[in-house]
Amino acid sequence: MQHLLNPSDPVSKNGSCGFSDTGLPAGSVCLFAAFAPDGILPIFTRFYLKNILDCGFILHLVLSGETPIDKETIVFCKKNNIHVWQRPNGGMDFGAWRFLFQKNVADQAPYVLLANDSVFGPFRPLADVVKQAHAYTLPAWGLVASRLITPHLQSWFVGLSRHTLQAAPVQRVFSLPFEQMSRNEIIWHGELGLSVALQEAGVPLQAAWSDLQSPLARFLPTNPMHTHWYSVAASGQVPFIKRELLRNNSFAISNLHRWPEVIPPTSNFDHQWIMDSFCKNESRSAPAATTAKGRALYNVISTADSLRWKIGHLKRSTR
């Protein structure tokens, strides 16, 4: 485990001391976990990192994998003042974030963003998304909140204030030995456990997109990044698509081929990056087994979701 690049200037990309334009407190840190078995940081992940830098974060990137990081990735990180760490793969994202917490890189940060490379995007500037949501004024905020299994913030993008992060229940979560856990254990003790800890600390679960109050989700909870992938991305509130969804489509969602439609023509995200990724054999864990009933349910909800969004968008555009 080593720190490969330590920029001499511990500030954001733009070197600013305050971020009144977005509300982000100076000195805020993003801990970004990326799986890099070949030592390469894909161009779409680099695009995502630039968006995080544009928000004003000090960025710590941890690459999990045994292969030495390639020169192009090192040059990119040096150019953008990104702190780069490498560690053996283990413990998934929570293992990577715990690794950085143990390095004390966020001890003085007034706000900490936890993010990972499990998505394609953003399809609109990330700084605009979090600014419009007043995310930095909230004790805990994510892009997506779901009722699946138990109410929780999806952990691929979660922001926590310093006070929230220091709460005892939250601290206990990040003290767990994730490197010794299976994938399912990490989901239960990490992603779900973090939201349980937040609620135990009296912190509400707030997000850009949420089904926590949805009557349908109370009876038929699903993963909204699968069932509502179209409207979630097209709305601009959560301008991302999960890589696992496009790579595996484990629920055999029939309208997934329409994914290019959710990327605005004005977006700086190049949809060809997604196309190119399909040609590569990504080494990722196999998707969970699904049932015929589950596939049917996800297809019905997904089809209705995209249709409802298109009808609503048509009505708005004709007013």
From TrEMBL:
Pfam family, one: RgpF
Top-level taxonomic group: Bacteria
Keywords associated with the record: Transferase
Any GO molecular function: transferase activity
Protein name as catalogued: Glycosyl transferase
Species: Acetobacter oryzifermentans
